[in-house]
Amino acid sequence: LAFASIAHICRDVQYGWLIRNMHANGASMFFFCLYLHIGRGLYYGSYLQKKTWNVGVLLLFLVMATAFVGYVLPWGQMSFWGATVITNLLSAIPYVGTSLVEWVWGGFSVGNATLTRFFTFHFLL
């Protein structure tokens, strides 16, 4: 359903392809600017201000998570297997890993419940 929705937007909606490509390339440009910002912070020694630096690292992880779930949303083969592999990394956490993976998936495998959760997370952030 998600792949068909993306195909509809790109093919049938006027300038839908442009909006989708601007969204995807805008995310890449955002990361480019983010890495420049991190490099500048390292050059000027901003990491010495621990609280500020830690907030920046937290924001970096949130942006990376948002980008990952956005990558999964078109629901193609690469998206599906990317979601499967990356979310399975959570199963390496002792004691709670397997339960955490099933909670993220919304079941016992990556499926529509996973897509709904990822869309919600991507939209909220």
Automatic annotation (TrEMBL):
Query: What GO MF annotations does this protein's record show?
Result: metal ion binding; oxidoreductase activity; quinol-cytochrome-c reductase activity
Q: How does it sit in the membrane?
A: Multi-pass membrane protein
| Alphabetical GO biological process terms | mitochondrial electron transport, ubiquinol to cytochrome c
Residue runs in coiled coils: none
Q: Name one GO cellular component term.
A: mitochondrial inner membrane
Membrane-crossing residue ranges in chain numbering: 29-47, 53-73, 80-97
- Which keywords, in A-to-Z order, does the entry hold? Electron transport, Heme, Iron, Membrane, Metal-binding, Mitochondrion, Mitochondrion inner membrane, Respiratory chain, Transmembrane, Transmembrane helix, Transport, Ubiquinone
- According to the lineage, what is the superkingdom? Eukaryota
Signal peptide stretch: none
Say yes or no: keyword Membrane present. Answer: yes
Cite the PROSITE patterns for this sequence.
Answer: CYTB_NTER
The reply to whether Transmembrane helix figures as a keyword in the UniProt entry is yes
Occurrences of domain Cytochrome b/b6 N-terminal region profile (ranges): 1-125
Q: Name one Pfam family in it.
A: Cytochrome_B
Q: What is its main location?
A: mitochondrion
Functional description taken from the UniProt entry: Component of the ubiquinol-cytochrome c reductase complex (complex III or cytochrome b-c1 complex) that is part of the mitochondrial respiratory chain. The b-c1 complex mediates electron transfer from ubiquinol to cytochrome c. Contributes to the generation of a proton gradient across the mitochondrial membrane that is then used for ATP synthesis.
UniProt subunit comment: The cytochrome bc1 complex contains 3 respiratory subunits (MT-CYB, CYC1 and UQCRFS1), 2 core proteins (UQCRC1 and UQCRC2) and probably 6 low-molecular weight proteins.
What's the name of the protein? Cytochrome b
Please report the organism this UniProt entry assigns to the protein: Tarentola boettgeri
